[in-house]
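Re: coenzyme A structure - here you go.
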Amino acid sequence: MTIRQAIDEDNQALQKLQARCPQGTSLQVSTVNAPDFFARVRAYEDTQVLVAEDGDRIVGSAAAAVRPGRVGDSVVPVGYQFQAFVDPDFRRKRLADALLDGLDQYLLDRGAVLAYCLIMVGNDPSMRLVERRGFVRHRDLVMNVLPVYKTMKPRAPVAVRTASAGDLPAVAALVNETWSGVQLHGPTTAEELGAVIDRTPGLSLDQFLVAESGGELRAVVGFWDWSAVMRVEVLAVSRQLRRLGRGLRLLGWFRPTPPMPRPGRVLRQVMVTTIGGRDPTALAGVFCELNNSMKARGVEQVFCITEPDSAVTEAMRGFFRVPQPLYLYVKGLTPDAALAPGAVFIDGVDL
Ligand SMILES: CC(C)(COP(=O)(O)OP(=O)(O)OC[C@H]1O[C@@H](n2cnc3c(N)ncnc32)[C@H](O)[C@@H]1OP(=O)(O)O)[C@@H](O)C(=O)NCCC(=O)NCCS
């Protein structure tokens, strides 16, 4: 078995392998980075994708990225490990360990003091794997799935508009103020936000919504169009979800209800990124506008990662919201690296 860095020519083989590695329990989906396998990692400035090869057959891959993030009282390089998958024929042979050893080394070389990863509830193989590798379940977050199925009226009138380049300094300041002191947050600037937008396929300035009052920016939310970087197809729906779908269809005779995804359906989804603002009215306003503009674009689901009790979760009150537990696992790479207790910052681009 060889572990090496992925190259552009691996594109097709990686996509084929990813298609053979579906994820999810109640809703089983095939997620393939398409049209370009490598588009998804471009969201990060400093990243590495490794592949495992058996002869000339690619049988596994995993990726990592380094970014600045708060650990305790300082902002230091932190590493994120993601997108691990191993050919079903080669599972349980510790192949993922070989890939993740390589990624640990890359993170150490880049000066990262800790590594983190995000695992959805029910993904027992991944939890076994990372716990064996010294990761600790540090915090339980929520991955909120918001089906887009009806136009929503804002709870209070708030002026929401699309951001322009001139807003970036105020957006950066609002984001920094919102997450100031929060673990894993790295302060940003207008230039960095501009660079993220430029390098990330599926992200553009007009995908940021801002709420203003009294000439000041009160809230911002951006969305990443996943259809530019991945194809998500429903493979199977659990009996429990099918039952829920039948219930919703019946209820649909009386009021609008979200449809249940069916096998074979390619989903149109977006992920919330770059959230800022603490004013509940302004935050609720940008989320309502986000829902309404997604409805107009034919997007079926909005995903948003939050702390369970937070202003952002509160802003989604009144939405049909399916909360899924999402676990943040953390491992120190240097002896003293430890996150302080309390809230953490996870940007949607990580998922
Ligand atoms: C997670 C994954 C990359 C692990 O790859 P791997 O090379 O098989 O990893 P390991 O050999 O270390 O096995 C990890 C654990 O998987 C579990 N596992 C694997 N196959 C299993 C099976 N058929 N039944 C039960 N457990 C299984 C075991 O708990 C094993 O840990 P253990 O040997 O200590 O009991 C692989 O399962 C995979 O590709 N899953 C689908 C994609 C995915 O979920 N990626 C992670 C996203 S966060």
